[in-house]
Amino acid sequence: MGIVLLQSTLSPYIKINGVHPDLIFVVVVGWTYLRGWEEGLGWAAIGGLSLDFISAAPFGVFTLALLLVTLAASLSHGRVFGNNIILLLALTFILGLLFNSIALLSLNLLGRPVSWIDAFSSVILPAALFNVGIMALVFPLLYLINRYLNPQPLSF
Q: pLDDT tens-digit profile of 33-51?
């Protein structure tokens, strides 16, 4: 998956205070928002497995987090938000908090110590804010790809 390669190669260069954006998370949430839970779950599984293969975390941590976040994101598909980018950015922030919290909780349950206050202030919150900024840049491209894949007929 190209996004995994992009995330793994660009992460050292686009960090802010040691926090990098979760490009796969952003793409999966954006695509789920546009196309629904079926396609979102497929991309979450592919992206999560890809992240699990390249990370030092126990296998399955990122797949589980992405799948759960995708299910939460799918609740918004075509129902609440329509095509409102501001509400999508708010959703991205909330789901970003959830994504990193699930990943850290999984690590904690697997025996890795987690200092929750430090994790929230130095990883979870900054990453969620960073992901909102990335979503603002990436979503227009996802929207155009979606329009290309599903052209809307002209109505007269």
A: 988 889 999 999 999 999 9
The set of residues, in sequence order, having a beta carbon less than 8 Å from that of 16 and lying 6+ positions away, is: 126, 130
Helices 23-35 and 37-54 cross at an angle (nearest 10°) of: 170
Q: State the Cα–Cα distance between residues 64 and 27, nearest whole angstrom.
A: 16
Q: What is the pLDDT of residues 83-107, one digit of tens each?
A: 678 889 999 999 999 999 999 999 9
Three-class HEC string of 90-151: HHHHHHHHHHHHHHHHHHHHCCCCCCHHHHHHHHHHHHHHHHHHHHHHHHHHHHHHHHHHCC
- Report d(CA 89, CA 108) in Å as an integer: 28
pLDDT digits (tens, 9 = 90+) for 40-80: 999 999 999 999 999 889 999 999 999 999 999 888 766 55
